[in-house]
Amino acid sequence: MNNQRSFFFNVDWVMVFIYLALCTIGWLNIHSAVYDEKHPYFMDLDTNYGKQFVYIIIGIITGIVILLLENRFFSTLAPVFYGITTLLLILVLIDGRNVGGNQAWISLGGGFRLQPSEFAKFATCLLLARYLSGTNVRVSEPRPFLIAAAIIVFPMFLIMLQPDAGSTLVFSCLIFVLYREGASPYFLILEGLFITLFVLTLKLNNLTYIVVALVALALIIIFLFRRNKKLIPIILMGLAICVAFVFSVKFLYTDVLKPHQKVRIDIVLGITKDNKGKGYNVNQSKIAIGSGKMWGRGYMQGTQTKYSFVPEQSTDFIFCTVGEEWGFAGAVVVLGLYLFLVLRIIMIAERQRSPFSRIYAYGVASVVFFHVVINIGMTIGVVPSIGIPLPLISYGGSSLLSFTIMLFVLIKLDSNRMGMIYA
Amino acid sequence: MNKFFERRYVIAGIFITLTVILLARLFYMQIIDDRYLLYAQDNVLRRVYTNPGRGPILDRNKKVLVQNEPFYDIMVIPKQVKPFDTLEFCKLLSIDKDGFSKRFEKAIKYSPSLASIFEKQLSAEVYAAFQERLSEFPGFYSSTRYLRTYPDSVAAQFLGFIGEVTDKDMKRSGNYYRPGDYIGVTGVERSYEEVLRGQHGVQNLMYDSRNRPKGHYAGGAYDTAAVAGERLISSLDIRIQRLGEQLMKNKLGSIVAIEPSTGEILCYVSSPTYDPNLMVGRQRGNNAAELYKNPYKPFFIRPIQASYPPGSSFKPLSALIAMQEGIITPQTTYYCPGYYQAGNRRVPCFHGEAHGTVNLSSAVALSCNGYFDMVFEKLMNFYGAKNTSSTFNNWRGNVTKFGIGSRLGLDMPGEGKGNMPTSAHYDKVYRPGSWRSSTIISLAIGQGEVLATPLQLANIECTIANHGFYYKPHLIKAIGEKDVIRPEYKVKNYVGIDGQYFEPVIDGMQAVVDHGTAALSKISGIVMCGKTGTAQNNHGEDHSVFVAFAPRDDPKIAIAVIVENSGEGSKWAAPIASFIVEKYLRDSITSRPSGMTPEQFINANRLPDLGNYGPKVKAKPIPKDTLKDLGIDSNDKDKKAWTKQPAKRAKRIPGKLVAARIERKENE
């Protein structure tokens, strides 16, 4: 009895509140985006808002179930989850439903289908936490780092085969987890540098400028830290890696990427302007958001979404509805909620006594935040359009359920932070 | 907790930074940049303009002259067309299979998914039969449009016609007009365009990304309904207009009748005329081409664009000015030996008839040239022969006050000025100081350089009837439901002649009809005052001129009739004028003591023979675009085109073409 009360007392209600708030915002915007006069009932299962309502209910039930589970359950079963999702990822390649060029769904019958890549994120976070929380595992050492990296890269590889570039990229955000657990900050800097170089390489046709600039930068750094002789080889190595990266990006871009992926990147980088064809989605999405002004056009009043100028309006481009109908004010609220959520997760992470819980929490924060930045960045045209959902707001059962599980497992782990440390 | 604890701040910092970047971008897009809202509206909003009904034009008794009648366009959306009985369809529209496929291909070429016109302007009868079976032809539907119709087919030159707007019109109107709109091209339709056209309605319709209609923007809050054009009440009396057009059938010339007490134009006949309905509908282009080719030039608006030497009809005016200047009194007499000796020129009276001793009234009644030549010489030499030039200019000033030589400002485009030469003109033709009253003596009897339009002639009669002033002649007496009258039409324009001088002249004019030159046209029971004229025509038979007003007391109608190439005014112009006057005053025509009947005149053909040069007129092919312009473009360029071209031909064959006089004026 006493135990039970302290359990509920320990649940982080702020998190639960944010979770419910985001789900509600999501449902309202889906309702507005795809409202159909033929199906006025908000739970009509022929419509996306009807289905999403069911998903939210299922999500809440799942959340409660998770809270009632044994605490040890997740760390113990982490490899099992990882194994199951890996199997599903392989299964989906063999017998998957192909939607929009991606073979990412397993049909469950009754119009419902499962997207294993969504659950792979959760399983990877769990296994990563499980591995890194092991005694004497220091990620700053090469071997554990490589193993951790392998845990991350393996599902990426399988998802890449679908091919689902968006979901693949999501895993790269787990670098934050490694960083937090002691991996060299150079990896972070390198990732930042790589992104910059990636953009520059594609924007500038002449690679010699970039190479010259990189060499100059290296020389400046060497000059500034000339006392520290040990730094020179590291910097030279970094330079070599950067130059290699630039050339491989060029190679990748011209020879490996599919034309439609190239076009998407080109549009974001402003290399081509194509508002009628491939750039149509992003252009319409920007129009929708931009037309919202300060207070938006009102619930169900957005013409861009209502009259289907914006594509994928209930899934990947749901933020258009937020921007159009609720304006900048709505966008600030949504982005604020997300930022608050991830900062709250970081706070929760740091109050854990168990490394497993902490590492897992960082994994969740990274995945959620990566989704938010890429998704919203895509709708306002600052990130190439890669189809990943906006956590808890976008329509989709797999996505909603997977984020629900991720968050509630964290809440469960956190509620037990005063208890025994397992694993 | 552990040694990497502080790294949480780095991660949180990165999260916050990225969020701030996104928010900054959102702030720029949503608050600073205004383009997106415009783009969004461009996406969904389609402004659809609804056309207002054009204002109808009524006659002075509110009989309809022109109104709008619905016609039906058959529209097609090729994508929605399903197999149907094409044979039956073609039969209903009375087109053949070839015509069907041609139209259909054109529609597909325009757009498979948008509506385009399949067949234009079906009449109500054809449409009724088609409409019953419309449901059998999916993809086809009808759209109503209103066209001008003229129930009595009268007053074509008065009403003018409308045509599709040109790019120039659209630009000039400050985007009032949209492609496919109609605009007045000539006549009242043009001069009252702003009143007649009404106001476009606007519907802000929304369409989704697949071009499906989604209703009105903001529930129609920003929509406006079309406002129909204002009704015009013209001054025309359809009864005498119709009669006038009949009387002038197969004749060239014009009739202008004005109500002296208001300046309202009662009758405005330009002959030959045409059925205004020809300028509407599907055959419009062909009809216009035919009319354009007609050597008698039906598009020429004779009442205001033709100008003639007034001939003897000028004499009353001459007498009035002389009295005002104190040169003569009504009692001044002259002995007429049948001619007048002006210097070394001998000006004969008509037919060389010797009138003996005449005074002012009898000189008018008998149309004695000698008397008026005498008056003119006296006037011109009043200040000595050396001052002829300045005396002439003074006299000219008096004449022009009556309206000759300048536009009267009729509410209709294309008005001519007539002509009244200045002394400078004679200085140029002769030598300064070398011309005398005898040189320009023909002006005394309305010949020579002086030219007047029929409208100006009628207006002079108004002035005489009113004893010294006229109201600006106008065609529209009231605008809109409130019957607005333009204030300028209520202003009396004085001509500088004292009222007392009119009676002797009017006495003479009454005598003209009672027992003078126009005695044949006397109407029993109505005192008409008139003056016959025979306008010399260097290119053929003289023009028959008659001006008059009636009744003498309380004049109700002033009239000028010109029948080209028909000789003396008494023979043709005067009887026609008398029928119009009587019809207007009595609404019926009584038998004349002379036995003349309207039928004789209606059936008479006074068209000049153009046989010799008819083919040559035709030989010059009409440029296609000019024809197109005729229907669409309303500027003066075309008007010249269709008055000028045959004229040049005509000039080479002297003594034949009636209108040569007119052309001379046009070319000046």
For the structure shown, list the relevant keywords.
heterodimer; A: 423 residues; mainly alpha; 3-stranded antiparallel sheet; 17 helices; 69% helix; globular; B: 668 residues; alpha+beta; Penicillin-binding protein 2a (Domain 2); 6-stranded mixed sheet; 5-stranded antiparallel sheet; 25 helices; disordered C terminus
Written overview of the protein:
- Chain A is mainly α and 423 residues long.
- Chain A has helices at 2-10, 13-34, 48-68, 72-94, 116-132, 142-160, 165-171, 175-180, 185-203, 207-224, 231-256, 259-269, 280-290, 303-306, 318-350, 355-379, 397-415, and strands spanning 97-99, 102-109, 112-114.
- The mean pLDDT of chain A is 84.
- In chain B, helix 10 (238-247) runs antiparallel to helix 20, helix 11 (284-293) packs across helix 23 (624-632) and helix 14 packs parallel to helix 19 (502-514).
- Chain B is α+β, with helices and mostly antiparallel strands.
- Residues 612-668 of chain B have low confidence and may be disordered.
- Among the domains of chain B are: 7-33; 47-154 and 202-234, Penicillin-binding protein 2a (Domain 2), CATH 3.90.1310.
- Chain B has 25 helices and 22 strands.
- The interface between A and B is large, with 47 and 39 residues.
Summarize the structure.
The complex is a heterodimer of chains A (423) and B (668). Chain A has 423 residues and is mainly α.
Q: Which structural class should the secondary elements of chain B be placed in?
A: alpha+beta
Q: Compute the average pLDDT of chain A.
A: 84
Order of helices and strands of chain A: HHHHEEEHHHHHHHHHHHHH
Strand content of chain B: 15-25%
Q: Approximately how much beta-strand content do the residues of chain A carry?
A: under 5%
Oligomer: heterodimer
Reported for the largest beta sheet of chain A, the result is: 3 strands, antiparallel
What is the structural class of chain A? mainly alpha
| Weakly predicted, low-confidence segments of chain B | 612-668
